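WARN no homologs supplied; continuing
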Amino acid sequence: MSFSRVALSDGEKQRICLIAKKAGPTIKQRDLLQLVIKDLGKTIMHTTVSKIIKDSSKWLNMDFSLQRTNVKRHRPAKWPGLEKALIAWFNQVFKEWINKQNRQMRQTNRKILLLMDNASSHQCKGEEKILHGLKCIKLSNILIAFFPANTTSVVQPLDVGIVASVKKCYKTLLLRWYLEQYDLLTDPLMDVGKIQPDVKQAIVWSAQVWQDTSTSTMRNCWRKASILPVAWNANIQVQDERRTAKDTLELTDLDNLISALNLGADALTTEEYVSLARENDIEEELTDAVLVEIAVTYGTFSSS
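OK structure emitted
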């Protein structure tokens, strides 16, 4: 009988070690294998079970409050410090902020629906429930709902206008800054391409642009996403006309700034500059070719 290779998650490997620990050292290998197969519902080889149990200290000591249980492959983190910082931020800052907001909403008898895409980094294992067919995290006054796969760009208000508005305003500030720096140059031989704003300046601009984003822009994008009751969309045509007029003014301003840079044939159109190719690609499934390249560059994956 031949077996096809079965991928086991970290949580399943820990489960195998727990089964072996509970069964005790006197259990026969054949009997242990049957217990594991029955518990996991997967047909795996005894050599796989033996290999996992040899590393039982690793799997039993794994803290799933800091990572997901469904991880099946590992590769070295390119920026391990950043990865740890993001995990710490989520657990220590984001969760605390959500709980604080929930307390405030409870005091004012208000409710919030927070929409999030289904990126793996957004999952809170053990806290999710299924409501109306969606994975959700439900607090007393805040409901966090995760979008189904491959729907974010269609139904998320951020993706149907809010992000585009923020990017236009941010890049307008950026181009104005470049022109100001160019006017202040005293060395004609200085490479203009090396003039870059620092991270602090980018954060200041981002905060300024977000504060300046109007509530009408946000409301209109919620309506465009078609996830609100139809009755709420009564004035959407009027809102669209106002939004279109504002968009035209913003694009004209940005177009004038691009022209002022005198980039000639290298100049992008306003639309190209606002939406650079792959600029928003943050998380994506890795292809086999990319996985092989990572393995060659950073070393092979650990065994599953």
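Residues 300-304 have pLDDT under 50 and may be disordered.
OK
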